[in-house]
Prior knowledge:
Blueprint: E1 2-7, H1 13-22, E2 27-31, H2 47-56, H3 59-63, E3 73-77, E4 80-84, H4 100-114, E5 117-120, E6 123-130, E7 133-140, E8 146-156, H5 163-168, E9 172-176, E10 180-188, E11 194-198, E12 202-208, E13 214-221, H6 225-229, H7 232-243, H8 245-253, E14 255-256, E15 261-263, E16 268-271, E17 274-275, E18 278-280, E19 286-287, H9 295-314, H10 320-345, H11 352-362, H12 365-375, H13 381-384, H14 387-396
Parallel strand pairs: 1-2, 1-8, 2-5, 3-11, 8-18
Antiparallel strand pairs: 3-4, 6-7, 7-8, 9-16, 10-13, 10-14, 10-15, 11-12, 12-13, 16-19, 17-18
Amino acid sequence: MYDAIIVGARCAGSPLAMLLARQGHRVLVLDRTALPADTVSTHYLQQYGLSRLQRWGLLDEVLATGVAPITNMTVSFGDSVISGFAATIDGITATIAPRRTVLDPILLRAAEQAGAEVRLGFTVTELVFADGAVVGVRGRDDAGRTVEERAAVVVGADGSGSFVADAVGADRYDVVPAACFIYYSYWDGLDVQFHSRIGERQQFGAWPTNDGQTLVAIMRRRDTFADFRRDVDGNFHETIRRIDPGMAEQVAGGTQLEPYRAIRYPDNFYRVSQGPGWALVGDAGYHKDPFTGKGISDAFVHAELLADRLHEGLTGGRPMAEALADYQRERDAESRSGYEFTCMISELELTPELQALVAAVSVDAAATEQFYTMVGGGITGEEFFAPANVASIMARAGVAA
Length: 401
């Protein structure tokens, strides 16, 4: 009998297992994939995510993998270019974008070292219920044998298409339709820091990752997907050229190292993420467009939050149902401004008011630092977009708010 069974061993599941095991709980982690294995990802870690790795004692190990530090960011919309970086957040002065083949094994090892039991190549095929509550899982192990395990709580950390969420009938809410699709790959021979450049209903991004490689991605509106697929390579390079000819020339002169990867991600949503004997964390419970690169960092934050609430319930500090209900409320409140900002900007069409604000920020060093501090998690979106703060930025730029 386990205290917790966690389905999914990546950026939400492994930290949750590690934190629970460090608190003395008996934890089983299951994943159908034999990690390490790659997965589609922006790889990007905001400062607030790195601060969690630092708190958990894992940051130095991640930095030692050869991932390049990012100390300058360039975000643009049309002719307005915001170039700079955030203020120091929790002592963090740079961001990184590690390959998932590097990051995920570090997180999983940390869970094992904390005492969690890990079974890879295990496919969960059903949840076990008793008296209306989830009490365990059934599935096939890596040898094809049927296995049943029981636990006080089962957590789905198994992504936006979560099996656990479907099995408990977790409803979605605050759904915002997905606007775009993404293609990306990795290049050698580029010299860039972080770029996210928005053109007319299209975007490209580039940022360094491990071993001198650079991730280059484009984002286009979904109604162009069929045409784009007819000539992926040509359309990929043409998208960059239309937004930044200089960057397009650099990408064309580099060496593409891997085939293109396509992402047609699901809608933005929250899910009901707790119930009798179960909970959801990471993309299983809260999914948004990858445009702002907040997915991994949010998974860390919410894994930490859920670990604390589960500990309260498992130790009798408070009723488990009450603790889990608080987890969902706190997660929703903490993530709301980031969710709304992501849904808004991933449309790739800014309102006239936001276009004016971007233009004002682009010529104001203090506002630029504040903007990137919001992106990095040092201040909230509510603080940055507060009417008084926006009016101040616009006034310094000589524009009426």
